[in-house]
Amino acid sequence: MRIALIGYGNVGKAFLKLLCKKEEYLKAEGIDIKVNYVVSSKGGVYNPDGINIKELDDFIKTEKDITKYHKGGGSDVSFSTVLKNKDVNTVIETTTTNKETGEPGMTHITLSLESGFNVVVSNKGPIMLAYKKLYGLAKKNNVQLGIGCTTGGALPSINGGIIELAGAEIMSIEGVLNGTTNYILNEMEKGETTYEEALKNAQSLGIAEADPTMDVEGWDTATKLLILTNVLMNKENTLNDIEVEGITSITPKMINEALKQGKKYKLIGKTINKDGEVNMSVRLELLGSEHPLYSVDGKNKSIRYVSNTLGDLIISGGASGLEAAAASVLRDLINIYRGYKYVR
Amino acid sequence: MRIALIGYGNVGKAFLKLLCKKEEYLKAEGIDIKVNYVVSSKGGVYNPDGINIKELDDFIKTEKDITKYHKGGGSDVSFSTVLKNKDVNTVIETTTTNKETGEPGMTHITLSLESGFNVVVSNKGPIMLAYKKLYGLAKKNNVQLGIGCTTGGALPSINGGIIELAGAEIMSIEGVLNGTTNYILNEMEKGETTYEEALKNAQSLGIAEADPTMDVEGWDTATKLLILTNVLMNKENTLNDIEVEGITSITPKMINEALKQGKKYKLIGKTINKDGEVNMSVRLELLGSEHPLYSVDGKNKSIRYVSNTLGDLIISGGASGLEAAAASVLRDLINIYRGYKYVR
């Protein structure tokens, strides 16, 4: 595979580090991945023979600006160079998510698919806004579109629905899809902390972001649920179609009363498909110990599908963090390499 | 897809029933499956234009012998006919498991792969005895070998390891892989029944077989663990390499003492991979509530993989019974149809 990495932020960097770490493994598996482009917003690196990513990794330890890299770095290396040269077969899109326009990812993905490149994307924006359109473009151009990283990273939620439930119809999707809020709720259960204290603690550990709005108000969960629903149930819904509540109103009193009854609050994203009519919600739900999502603790995530002929499927776990996000990009890449058709 | 169904026992019949039930769905998904052969040990049915399986299903309600079916039935229709005509692309092997020789499945699968047919198999025998050889044959002949049904049916255990952990290394496999024993242990936890009573109860409900040896002495779990280990860790082990204990020595006293400590006994199949050295066991283990397999109750099954870069993955659920087994055959079939490469 010849690859252009578009976006040189946290996920992009973690992906290159992972490729270094996995060099031996990939060789042993007979998987040949060449990175020909690394493109940031200010320029990039291009090497038609494949960038030596170990060397590049060493280089940026002392010099932040990759355009100064002596083997192919330049401020003139951009996504347009990739389009012009047409010497890769796969584009990895890891630019920052924009939930209103999806840009710049939307343009990158659209033009890549139109140019006949496979695309693996970690950027949720374009996928939540236009999956059906992008899927259609990929199909028309006979290329693949891997989106496994957009709905829980290492948790194989999308693939679980597509591959493992092939031939069965999915009646409902229900998940603990956000590790940060699950961690906060879990901390409140452990000690008698308030929501504010638990959030502050999560922020100091790097689990919650400085601006935690997306997580704690339920929008991260809603975004993932929207993508899962649109993809697995062939819909074109938007965030407006989801009733979204976060966890900000939770109190130690509520938590304690739940625990007394042997129950736990979880932020649940849920889609019920009733004869093709889809109902989506994100809200705090009180789960008893018989519920399969009851025991999903800490930063863990989990998803439950109810299907007709293949029964219930519950997938839990998935490491958190940048390496796991990078590993889930690599997973999609390898599956495309092996011939799996995400786009049929 | 043009299909020959070899084996007309419980799974074979359930598969044809499922195809009838899914007719509309498959049409809507654009999946074209024609069954050209149904072969039992006493003859079969052949129709080069595709057997009308609804009609065949009606026919066998009054007449057990399919060779008498007026549209293509005959005692001369056999697996050899399939080999001679070469007018299918996929063989579904559902004959009875033989754990010593793998026959007659071994011959069916070998000759099918050599003839350039994809094979989807529900029969564990040949897979536990010779997966590596059969995989090699499939690879050489550029066809696919789907084995998802052999390691827990609807529970996507094999695919979970192959697809969802692509690019990560699996350090351990641990699972509740047998629904019958899990049900019996669960019944003992609920009431103060002895092992013998719980087994009898399971037998009367059709959950345990008349001869429950394979389940209760751990061999069903061992077989599944062996297949998972050989496939996912590229080994050629045999059942002799596994330390196998069943659940027959469990007493109400043990169960009660465990419950008092907040623990449960589970029959766990476990493989630990330490620097390429593999250690396999099947035995009763005492799990605390923090263990992800603790809450797998009743007839449910679950598997946990520990990987390096993609973290833990726990897959639970999967319906039990014949329809679920048939649905897991259909799942592999559809994935092959969609281009997924089980054999790379």
Automatic annotation (TrEMBL), chains A, B:
Ligand binding (NADPH): 124
Gene3D superfamilies, per the entry: Dihydrodipicolinate Reductase, domain 2, NAD(P)-binding Rossmann-like Domain
PROSITE patterns registered for this protein in UniProt: HOMOSER_DHGENASE (PS01042)
Domain of life: Bacteria
MF-aspect GO terms: homoserine dehydrogenase activity
Binding locations of NADP(+): 7-12
Keyword flag NADP: yes
GO biological process: methionine biosynthetic process; threonine biosynthetic process
UniProt-listed SUPFAM superfamilies: Glyceraldehyde-3-phosphate dehydrogenase-like, C-terminal domain (SSF55347), NAD(P)-binding Rossmann-fold domains (SSF51735)
Domain spans labelled Homoserine dehydrogenase catalytic: 164-334
PANTHER family: HOMOSERINE DEHYDROGENASE
Entry protein name: Homoserine dehydrogenase
Organism of provenance: Oxobacter pfennigii
